[in-house]
Amino acid sequence: MPTMSICHAPVPGGPDALRFEQAERPRPAPHEVLIRIGAVGVNRLDAMQRAGHYPLPPGTNPVLGVECGGTVMEAGAEVDGIAPGTRVAALLPGGGYADYAVADHRHVVAVPADWDDVRAASVIETFCTAHETLFELSRLARGERVLIHAGGSAVGSTAVLMARAVGAEIVATVGREDKARRLREWGIPHVINYRSVDFADALREIHPDGIDVVEDFIGPAYLARHVSLLRWRGRLAFVGLLSSGACQLDVAAVLLKMLQLRGFTLRPHSAVEKAAVVERFRQRWLPELIGGRITPAIHAVLPFAQAAEAHRMLESADNFGKIVLRI
Predict the structure, then answer these.
(1) C-alpha pair distances (Å), 178 with each of 183, 185, 190, 199
(2) Which SUPFAM superfamilies does the annotation name (predicted)?
(3) What is the pTM of this model?
């Protein structure tokens, strides 16, 4: 059987736990396509999985990588409209840190001829996550006020671009001044360095009567302040968990202000649900990307052999935007 190179962490640990090995090349099921991967996006869940902190859904490919850019090499018998030779961006259930991967054909998007695999690999996971949390869960609308944490991260910076595109009033937080400068260059006037000031105090100076939406990558450490900052019918989407432990919730405030607190993670979605997520990306944001009205930030493109360095870069929060591995 044909083989390929893979990168995984057979024993959980730090970035140096990553190992390159040979494995059997996958074959597509009737509803799948086989993709020759040209580039793979590096995501925080990859680092969490490598460290042993991300329980995989049953039956998930244990090889890292949940999004890629590449070329379809083979299509299953039930696949219609995606022929071999099509260049694509794809959401994967796992297996992206490899030469080849299989994907449900409904989770694959054909990309323009002038896109390289790096660009294709840099958008689909982040845009799907940002769209679902900002618009499907939080229903962010023009003129509303949104607080976006981790504004220099891949998903955070994408959320900033999306919120700007719909005419929302944005407050973003970052932990470094160079990232704050980048966001201001994008036309975001309210950027808070949370290492210099308490973000909640700073936000109250900007909007004394509160905000409508919170894009929350932090979790327990900020929950009380978020509840206090949200105004009538405010919405909060939990997107990440950069803090840990238990926290207290002011249920009275949630009731009296009629707040909505909702959580989101993309990977455990069913195949049908994920297909709907991808279709919303295709309809709403792919035209914006193709037309050049939105240009996401790519921080670094590293060769596949430097996967450990990519993980170190991600975990030290050195990146502004996406980190991509070129296969």
Answers:
(1) 9, 11, 14, 17
(2) GroES-like (SSF50129), NAD(P)-binding Rossmann-fold domains (SSF51735)
(3) 0.95
